[in-house]
Amino acid sequence: MSYIRLKTLEVSIGDLKMGGQNPIRVQSMTTADTMNTSAVVDECIRLINAGCEMIRITAPSIKEAENLLNIRNELKKRGYSIPLCADIHYTPNAAEVAAKIVEKVRINPGNYADKKKFELKEYTDTEYNNELERIREKFLPLVRVCKEYGTALRIGTNHGSLSDRILSRYGDTPQGMVESAMEFIRICEDENFHNIVISMKASNPLVMIEAYRLLVDTMIKNGTIYPIHLGVTEAGDGEDGRIKSAIGIGTLLEDGIGDTVRVSLTEPPEFEIPAAKKLVEPYNNFRARHLNEIDNWLLSDHPKWHITSSPKFNKTSNAVKNIGNENVPIVIHSLSQKNDKEITPANLFCAGYIYNVKSDKWNITDFAADYVYIKNQNIPFDLPGNIGIIQDYEVWIKNPLPQHYPLIKYEQLFTAKSFHQELNFIEISHNHLNTIQLPESKNNVIIIEIEDKFFNAGHLAEKLKLFYQNYSAPIIFKLNIFTEDQENFIIQSSKILGYLFTNHFGNGIMIDNPKGYKNYSPQFLNQLMFNILQGLRERISKTEYIACPSCGRTLFDLQETTKKIKEKTAHLKGLKIGIMGCIVNGPGEMADADFGYVGTGPGKVSLYKGHTVVKRNIPEEKAVDELINLIKEYGMYKEIDNENC
């Protein structure tokens, strides 16, 4: 197993070292009003106790920037020392004040010197260069303060708040995100200032991954690779927030990219730290075990980090029934842990199939698995027409039934007496992928069993490239994750599948519970698979929420509001709803959502269709109902079907 991490420039955030050979750092952000010193300090202490290594605090104006000194002093008074980062949007004067107080300042290139009005215009080269000079004049004072005070600077591009100028020239693209940051990097470099960290955040993990990869490629060509902060912004809460974060952050960590992370959840900030630590610890632990191989582990210029175009491998596979080629990835639900003598219709409930005894009919939910693996058991009842049953070969061969297909272990393959004429599942270990020989058949689907405590998905991706030189069979990834920690189970599953699918491998998934951990019910495993595919935007099965994690700028209770909106909209499959605490990223992120709910003042909410505001300054107590009315106006609301719930 090999793991190579991108070597970046080492920078200092106070006493904290980041980049270079240092561990991947974990950080978060406070949610209390920055002027409420005691509340912010209490939050900071909870974060420190959870393992946070750096804390970001919003400073929307000079008064909040000045109060950072009181926060810092109170933390010291209570015996705590941790680097603080001021979060700045729209207010260069606040950034310059904060840079004299805290160890790091984060600025957003999209709104530091530009305003966002969603007005596009054609710029001549001369006009564009004049705009760059205007930005330079606005930004230089902060650079010089940071240089004088030894303050680090994070240049944090956000997909939802690219400036109109960038959008006019580059569009709403990863290239625009990267160029937005590079404009500010060049100004810093002209001043010989290099104490910089870069981020490329987006609420869509796929956009975020592409932007970071393009950033790395651009910095390599530019000659200096600055430390990289990873995060999926507005990831949401609960399982979905962890899945989207693990897909985005975990995929890049597998690439060897990332020096610090934040998992942005719409939950109390201290809840972010355990999730972030579970993402980075495998890589930090791997580093600790291989310090004697540091020259091989840290490479500053390796072909794997240069952007290359590659075919979508899952599109080149054969189509075997409903698997492969242009079909959406399938879900295989496993009943292999079931110990009853006989499977009943009730056992398929956890796979998304509900049998109504009174009407003698099946109700098929949005989480209905495509195939169910029953190991060596039999099904003694009539099945719904769209389900496939997978049996162990030795059981299937004795009595082949309609809608039943064999699972053949690789070692059985060459002694098997007969095969299904339409579909055969062949299971192999990921360790043996490049040592196998498959018979010529267009009816085979390969199940690759992944079973490893620290699985290197990048290593498997390299094997898959070789595999596809010889075979075109669809591939299903079967995960066996050995952890009793449910959060870690979600994160590791999402990270592995996220890396493989975003690198264009895979035609389906199967997550098993081989040790029968009590935390993981069959229904939980089934929904997890659908939720991961939704996070990858490979298969949509429910409503998607783009919800920010809250901060001191937030103008309402995000957690409670998100809960209320979910209660009324969770049945609207495919609808995307943005829930934003303030207008910093709200309108921009609305471009990726069908509807948006954005705080615009104390107790006031504005509603958006896309990135266009359609209802302004609605009282907060009426805003959720008004959102539902707005969805109805556009014909995108349906009532809950209680009969089939």
Overall 3D shape = globular
Q: Which structural class best describes the helix and strand composition?
A: alpha/beta
Quaternary structure: single chain
**Which segments are poorly predicted (pLDDT under 50) over 5 or more consecutive residues?**
290-301, 308-315
Strand order in the largest sheet: 4-5-6-7-8-9-10-11
The CA-CA distance between the termini, in Å, is 47 Å
Got a strand count? 27
Largest sheet: 8 strands, parallel, barrel
> What is the overall pLDDT average?
88
Strand content: 15-25%
Taking all Cα atoms into account, the compactness measure Rg is: 26 Å
- Give the helix tally: 18
Helix content: 25-40%
Question: What does this protein structure show overall?
Answer:
The protein is an alpha/beta fold and 645 residues long. 35% of the residues lie in helices and 20% in strands. The chain is built from 18 helices and 27 strands. The protein has an 8-stranded parallel barrel, surrounded by 8 helices. The chain has an 8-stranded parallel beta barrel with strand order 13-16-17-18-19-20-21-22. Strands 23-24-25-26-27 form a 5-stranded mixed β-sheet. Helix 9 packs across helix 14 (486-502) and helix 13 packs parallel to helix 14 (486-502).
